[in-house]
Amino acid sequence: MNSSKDGLWNTDFSHIYVERKAADHPRAKRILSRLKNSRLIEIGHYKDVFCRSRQSFRLQKHSPKLILAVKEGNLLYKGARVCQDFGNHHFYYTSCVMNCPYDCEYCYLQGMYPSANIVIFVNLEDIFLDVEKLLKSHPVYLCISYDTDLLALEGITGFVSSWLGFASRHDSLVIELRTKSANFNAIKDIPPLDNVILAWTLSPVEVIHDYEEGTPSLQARLKSIKRAVDRGWKVRLCFDPIIFTRDWKRQYGACVKEVFEELSPDSIHDVSLGVFRISKEYLKRIHKDRPNSLVFAYPFEEREGVCTYSSGHTKEMRDFLYSEISRYIPGDKIYF
Description:
globular; alpha/beta; 32% helix; pyruvate-formate lyase- activating enzyme
């Protein structure tokens, strides 16, 4: 018997808000053609909906709406210090989509954004132009999927294919596409590119079950990774964020073992490790929406505005994961 509450929420993207200046854009039209059953609502600016007061991120996650907009102002950002640069001096990221279709309990987006609705900026060509301007000065390492999961949304946006086409024309650009999806099939027919890294976030089965609502299983992610490496793509494995639980050592030890039973270590480009960390301000906002969360019940330490686990726990977790992974991957290919 289904729960009666299941019928209380509209389906995802039952409503689509469209900025007037975005309505005639070819990408907007393509997206709308894929969501023909949604109700369209014209708006002046995406912030009129996305940034209005007294929204509940948690409630909106039950039935997120879509907003199609034109991105203005800054289109590229210097990489944040809490993010790994993998030795790249010219590290940037961009947000062509705001918010993620998944609902991970520990996600920083719920503290960063006032709304769980998803904003798609249709003017991707303007971001491309800004990247090209930057490339005239120096090489660029660009993360394109930090504030969303572009591969999970590929069936709606087609943005990953567009980015890969752009990367194929610019050898001095390196792109990282981070994802938890099992949607490699969406780009399987695109030839691998030497300047593109497909980066999968991996977690123990228990963490996925308890804290990563809506995401594919570990096995589904590994099968997608295997298809990618078999086709010649560079793949990064991201054990990030590492979540502290009562049984974290057993869980992460089993996770690493399962990963390298499924994948050949020689097929992996590199690995990143990072314990959970979050802005102090984001954490304050999340506490209000998730007062009973076990993830956020930890007595975090603050260091320069960033909250994370105690120094002891941080070192223990990093050392343990490094020790486990270095059985398979050379230490110079493991990044903190």
